[in-house]
Amino acid sequence: MKKYLTEFIGTFFLVLTVGCTVIPGAAGVIAPLAIGSALMIMVYAGGHVSGGHYNPGVTVAVWLRGRCDAKDVAPYIISQILGALAAAIVVGYLYKTGEPMVIPCVTKALVAELLFSFALCYVVLNTATAKDTANNSFYGLAIGFTVVVGAFAVGGVSGGAFNSAVAIGAATMKMLNFADIWIHIAANIAGGAAAAAVFKFANPTDP
């Protein structure tokens, strides 16, 4: 249960930060930096308990890589989605809700979300689960700033979720259209699976 609570809390603060910076229209670079930093601090805070996934795609990637028990996959994802929904309720109370982003091109959004979901999961696997980087002190920074990079690079194309739970939370806060979140969910899970496949190919001796 402690692992699931950790996943709930980490995803809650990640999505809370998304809503509290994007909906009021934080100026300039504040939103991407705040969102990436929120992920970073929650990875550092809960990584030793649950692995600090806070993202269904990451959970799928870590499971396929062999570092997450199959029995934990569904509870992790449920905890992440519940954390995202709880954060959306709090943001709705604090700031009401946002204006849904109009995705200009579904194909471009799908490619953008897929690429950076892959990048995020690839970084997680290589910094937080690889034997050659075990017990390092930089994994939280690497993971958090992958989100910063993605938000700056393609946020205007897809919304920059790279996370199914974040997409569900964003849609609940009316920052994304519910009709469009399949793009984020499909890309997130596919990106995680692709990252796991690449990791296993590149690290055949890492059990």
Secondary structure blueprint with pairings:
Layout: H1 2-22, H2 30-50, H3 56-65, H4 70-95, H5 106-129, H6 139-158, H7 164-172, H8 181-202
Helix pairs in contact: 1-2, 1-4, 1-7, 2-6, 3-4, 3-5, 3-8, 4-7, 5-6, 5-8, 7-8
Can you offer a commentary on this structure?
The chain is an all-alpha fold and 207 residues long. The chain has a single domain (2-202), classed as Up-down Bundle (Glycerol uptake facilitator protein), CATH 1.20.1080.10. The protein has 8 helices and no strands. It has helices at 2-22, 30-50, 56-65, 70-95, 106-129, 139-158, 164-172, 181-202. Helix 3 (56-65) packs across helix 5, helix 3 (56-65) packs parallel to helix 8 and helix 4 (70-95) packs parallel to helix 7. The protein is globular, with a radius of gyration of 16 Å. The two termini are 26 Å apart. The mean pLDDT is 96.
Keywords, please?
globular, 207 residues, 0% strand, 74% helix, Glycerol uptake facilitator protein, mainly alpha
What's the rounded overall pLDDT mean? Answer: 96
Number of helices: 8
What radius of gyration results from the CA coordinates?
A: 16 Å
What proportion of the residues is helical, as a percent range? over 70%
Number of strands: 0
Please write the CATH class name: Mainly Alpha
Order of helices and strands: HHHHHHHH
Low-confidence segments, given as residue ranges, are none
CATH architectural grouping: Up-down Bundle
The figure for the number of domains is 1
The computed structural class is: mainly alpha
Described by strand count, sense and barrel closure, the largest sheet is: none
CATH homologous superfamily caption: Glycerol uptake facilitator protein
CATH topology: Glycerol uptake facilitator protein
Could you give the distance between the termini? 26 Å
Shape: globular
Report the portion of residues in β strands.
under 5%
